[in-house]
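Table 4 source record.
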Amino acid sequence: MSGEFEVAGAMAEGGMWARVAEPKAGEASVEGHGKCLNCGTILNGPHCHQCGQAAHVHRSISAFWHDILHGVLHFDGKFWNTLPLLAWQPGHLTRRYIHGERAKFISPMALFLFSIFMMFAIFSYVGSPNFTGDNMKSEAAKDGITVTPGSDWRASMREGIARLELKIKTATDELAALPADDPQREKLTEKLIDLKREVNGLTFATEGKARYPEVLGPDGEKIADTFEFNSDVDTGFKAFDSWINKLASKAKKNPELLLYKMQSNGYKFAWLLIPLSIPFVWLATIGKRGHRFYDHAVFTTYSIAFMSLLFIVVTLAVKFNIAPGLVITAAFFYAPFHMYRQLRHAYGTSRIGGIFRLSLLLTCTIFVVTGFLTILISLGLIG
């Protein structure tokens, strides 16, 4: 149960940070009368204009839980106003927020903070980003395969190696049972070599060497030498080379620690995605006048928040086996379509212009993600 409590705690933490980013909810339900119960000011509306307290307070269990949902998770009318527009009409949401309709919507930064905290909380509950560790172990157990404990990505590779080894054993037994002049021997031998090459590919990643060097050949030996990781970087700058080689040595000795640090730093420095993305959004919208960098920041923050929520949906679908293939395929195609709709309606582009700007923005996204991962890797190695 510790994983569930950790997820709930991280979600609550994200909600509280979102509340810090957007302290005023802007909601009202009934007209006030009499004096404020907090400061005694005569009320002219549903809230005190002096201290901001609501005119009517409730002393019930339902009101207590409402306060928790509303105050910690920011679960109010803004949520229902914002989420449908964010999912289907992101461009309209962006434009309306930029042009002043803000009391009815969750601010982009508050939504971004909550979605990022929630995404990484789900990651910590599910496991590594490949989301397959538990499923791989259960499937391997059905086949009588024992997977060596380790990080999820290595465990899944070891599970694949174990499956291939079973096939290699079966093929070897079949080959030994065939007569020397049987025409099936050649075909079975080729199959056996292919299986061993697949195992070599996986053992390169998990063990740094080929398990079946006899099937490598000349090109394979070069690859094997590359995966030994024995050569040092030599650029001619001794101080730089020493620093790089030291970091590479740390990554080689404990890759699981590096992955853990990357995941841990991911949510702490996720805000870097916004300043990294804004210049590229500006580049993709060159020619559209009347827009400021504030507009690009709102566009970027809402977009990243939605992608985080979409990633959460995909993660949970894979974790609980809820039509994972369908969900992943739908998310893969809807993500760029969502960006297209947001670009077109937020900046008022034509269909052709929107497609052109989308292609440019998708290309720029590769640079943003690469830069962000580079920062996480550097922080993981230095820390």
